[in-house]
UniProtKB/TrEMBL annotation:
It is a peripheral membrane protein. The lineage of its organism: Bacteria, Pseudomonadati, Pseudomonadota, Betaproteobacteria, Burkholderiales. Residues 11-178 form the Era-type G domain. Belongs to the TRAFAC class TrmE-Era-EngA-EngB-Septin-like GTPase superfamily. Era GTPase family. It is found in: Cytoplasm; Cell membrane. This is GTPase Era. Residues 45-49 are annotated as: G2. Residues 157-159 are annotated as: G5. It comes from Zemynaea arenosa. One of its GO terms (molecular function) is ribosomal small subunit binding. Keywords: Cell membrane, Cytoplasm, GTP-binding, Membrane, Nucleotide-binding, Ribosome biogenesis, RNA-binding, rRNA-binding. One of its GO terms (biological process) is ribosomal small subunit assembly. HAMAP family: GTPase_Era.
């Protein structure tokens, strides 16, 4: 009797994560790859760039693509650019995770469903299931959303509590094509340290200023130097008005100092060495409405 079994072929592919703002897409990706490469905050619409998170296990490599929240509330050049990025990300993925929040389905979620391509498997991920007080309500909710599109699978999870994430990974794996790994086994992102530095500062800004800061504020790393283990990071925070500049700086510079200290600590952890960080605030009026301006800041 032949008892040898052929090991399963290696699988590798791209996974796009979509959903309306604030459903937990960044949190989910960070938990799936087990590292913090995508920024998260309570304020909706914090993720602007496509971020790739990579996870390699024995028999597969998962390449996650985080998309900016599909914007429907405002219509300016920035949002048009964001929505174009979402569509491009979707059509180049092998699997799509469509994330909703347990118990909540609205017009903004439906608008994302309307963007989903029909020829790529889409997994319905019901996140924040830890919040459902009565777990019995999850099933009817899942059935109701599942009826709106032909999903390849439905998985309730809690990104925050890591509930059901292995089950989700198994579902995803089924849809990845067979093929060799694209990245090295220890890579977690293809983003440069410079890019990650800007994302970290942006996260601290949104965390500390919350709703006071408009989502059009941005962070630009103007200089990034490496000298042995030391990184020197020179960073500008761009706001639209003088009043916002004062808000970011805070009383006697206290806010900016807090942003700076927290950012430096996070960078040191991520880069594994000391970081010298300088941050200043600039007023750049109207940049979110100007497409040429967007290109200059790398939002294409
Ligand atoms: N209770 C609970 N909260 C969660 C869970 N996942 C995410 N959150 C919270 O939901 C909020 C939004 O999470 P993000 O990961 O920033 O959401 P996002 O979908 O990436 O948001 P955008 O960048 O605006 O598109 C944060 O306060 C998270 O802590 C979860 O499983 N349970």
């Amino acid at each position: 009797m032949n008892t040898t079994t052929t090991p399963a072929a290696f699988r590798c592919g791209y996974i796009a994560i979509v959903g309306r703002p604030n459903v937990g897409k960044s949190t989910l990706m960070n938990q799936l790859i087990g590292a913090k490469v995508s920024i998260t905050s309570r304020k909706a619409q914090t993720t602007r760039h496509r971020i790739t998170g990579i996870q390699t296990v024995e028999d597969a490599q998962f390449i996650y693509v985080d998309t900016p929240g599909f914007q429907t509330r405002h219509s300016n050049a920035l949002n048009k650019t964001l929505n174009k990025t979402v569509t491009n990300t979707l059509t180049s993925a092998d699997v799509i995770l469509f994330v909703v929040e347990a118990g909540t389905f609205g017009a903004a979620d439906q608008q994302v469903i309307d963007l989903l391509p029909k020829n790529i498997p889409v997994i319905l991920v019901i996140n924040k299931s830890d919040r459902a007080k009565d777990k019995a309500t999850l099933m009817p909710f899942a059935r109701n959303v599942a009826a709106k599109f032909e999903f390849a699978a439905v998985v309730p999870v809690s990104a925050k509590q890591r509930f059901q994430l292995p089950a989700l990974e198994n579902e995803i794996k089924k849809f990845l094509p067979e093929g060799e790994a694209v990245f090295g086994p220890d890579d977690i992102t293809d983003r440069s340290e410079k890019f990650l530095a800007a994302e970290i500062v942006r996260e601290k800004l949104f965390r500390l200023l919350g709703d006071e800061l408009p989502y059009t504020s941005t962070v630009m790393v103007e200089k990034f130097e490496e000298e042995g283990a030391l990184r020197r990071v020179f960073c500008a925070i761009l706001v639209e008005r003088d009043s916002q500049k004062a808000m970011v700086i805070g009383n006697k510079g206290a806010r900016l100092k807090e942003v700076s200290t927290q950012s430096r600590l996070d960078m040191e952890k991520l880069f594994g060495g000391p970081v010298y960080l300088e941050i200043w605030v600039k007023v750049k009026s109207g940049w979110a409405d100007n497409e040429a301006g967007l290109r200059a800041y790398g939002y294409e």
